[in-house]
Structure formats: structure tokens, C-alpha cells
Design goal:
Blueprint (H helix, E strand, L loop, with lengths): L5 H16 L3 H26 L8 H10 L2 H9 L4 H13 L5 H29 L6 H15 L3 H24 L3 H18 L4 H12 L6 H30 L1 H22 L1
Helix pairs in contact: 1-5, 1-8, 2-3, 2-4, 2-6, 2-10, 3-9, 4-9, 5-6, 5-8, 5-11, 6-10, 7-10, 8-9, 8-11, 10-11
Length: 275
Amino acid sequence: MGFKAPHEIAIAAVAAGVKKTSLSLTNLLLLGFLGGAYISAGYLLYIRVTANLPEDWGTFGSFVGAAVFPLGLILILIAGGELLTGNMMAVPMAWLAKRIPFSRLMHNWFWITLSNFAGAIFVAYFFGHLGEFTASGVYLEKTVDIAAHKIEVDFWPALISGVGCNWLVALGVWLSYSANDISGKIAGIWFPIMAFVAIGFQHVVANMFVIPAAIFEGYFTWFDYLKNFVPVFLGNAIGGSVLVAFVYWKSYQSYIVHSEEREKSNNEKLDDVQM
């Protein structure tokens, strides 16, 4: 048991951002694929659980779905995976701390976006379409209904929804960094992720699954998807980079700098001993 204090989480987040940008391209693509697939598996579970719920359950049905959706981020942060929305917090923390150049941030976001998309499309087509887990009956109806509600939102409301989403998702990642055991990590992840799903905020990687899943069944177009992708991506970037990374970096900047100075001093002492 045990957990880190907020300033210790900030230091851990900077270290995580540095580590993420140090991954080889092969590892970025593989772990990014898993990240997109895991989030999509969580969304598929949401659809399978909620599609048959009675209508008179109202918002409680949304809560039931929100309660199972966090599976995706739990798998990413414990089993291993790279998720764009989490990297929209951790990597900017490393950049703000001047541990990486801006080019490494953009490199990471670019390849993780592509690999998350590949993983989401794999689940949508292989399991959703070919496996018919979202291709017929109430499951198709639920998938199309969810996708329609996301696509019909105008640019600015979609962007604001994206901000709210990654404010909570990035906080879920932040809380996972605080925990020193698996149960603590799961609890830290579950509450913020459950909250964003229950509220109805838009997540760029989750949308990479549910909208294409509807497209594969003959509903909507890829242009419809692109119109949703742009504002949600921008909103998620603002939510993670500004509301979490910048605010906490600014709040705990002195601790981060002190930690770096102490690490540098320890490394110099180690070098002296080895000489």
C-alpha cells in the first residue's frame, strides 16, 4: 500500500514523459496499437453491456456502461500500452520541464495517433464487423446511435467536450502514477474514466472505434468521422496539456527542478567514484 504526494506525482509524470519519447519507433507502434485496441475493447464491452438494458433505467444504464468502460485504460497502464490522450499529459510535462525538445513531443503524438487508430480499426472491423459483435440487432442499433450522437455535434461543442474528457482521462493517468500497488492504480483510474463516460464527453481514441464500427455497417462516411476527429483531438490536447500538465507543472515546478538538480548531483558523485 501507499501513494505519492502530488509533487511526487508531478516528478513521476515528467519521468514518464521522458521514457515515452525514448521508445523506439517499433515499440511506439506496437504499444500504440495495443492502446487503441484496449480502449476499443472497453468500448465494445460498454456496447454489449448496455444495448439490452431497459429504457426505463434511464441514466442508471449509462452508469452501468461507464462502470465497465475503464477496462481499456486499466489494461494500458498496468499490462502495458501507449494511449494518445495519456501522452497528451505526460509528454507535455517532460517538455515543460525542458527534458525533451518539442520535436520529440510531436513525433510521439504523431505515431501514437496512427497506431491507436490502427488498433481501434482492428477491433472495430475484426471483432465488430467480421465477428458481428456490433453488426446486428440491438448492438448495431446501439453502435449507430452512439456514433450519430457524436457526429452530429458541432465543432465548438465537440472541442469543449474533448477538453472535459481529457481533463478527466489525464487525471486518471495522473492518479495511477500516484499508486504503488495494482489495486490503488485501478481505483485511481476507474473513477475519472467512469465519470467522463457517464457525462458523455468525447474521447478521440474511443471515437476511432465506435464511428468506424458504424461506418463498416454502411452508416455515415469517413468525412463525417474526420469532422469529428479534428475538434475532439484539439479538445483532448487542451484538456491534457493545459488543464493537467501545465497547471501541475506550474504548481510543482520548484519540486521538479530540485529533483532534477538532485539527480544530476547524484550522477556526478557516481562518476567521481567510478573515476
